[in-house]
Amino acid sequence: MDPIVITSLTVSFIAILVIFTVLIVLIYTIKLLVRLIPYEAPPAAARAKPKNSANAVTPNIISAITAAMATHLRKSPKEFYITQIHPK
What pTM, to 2 d.p., does this model score? Predict the structure, then answer.
């Protein structure tokens, strides 16, 4: 066989060997880390954002906002309708 073909096959074999060796090392490293540092899900209370009643939009607040906008826009409160209020 031609020496160039033998050299090409040897280099290809070494490259494949190196790639699979690195992959095997990564697999076992990840398995070891999973055993040493297991995943812990956050508690349910931390995931759910509690609704603060201090920021709740009450009908009194909506009527006050409607009256203020009506006064500012010089229109009747019946001419517009508030659809969304985003408290901050």
Answer: 0.44
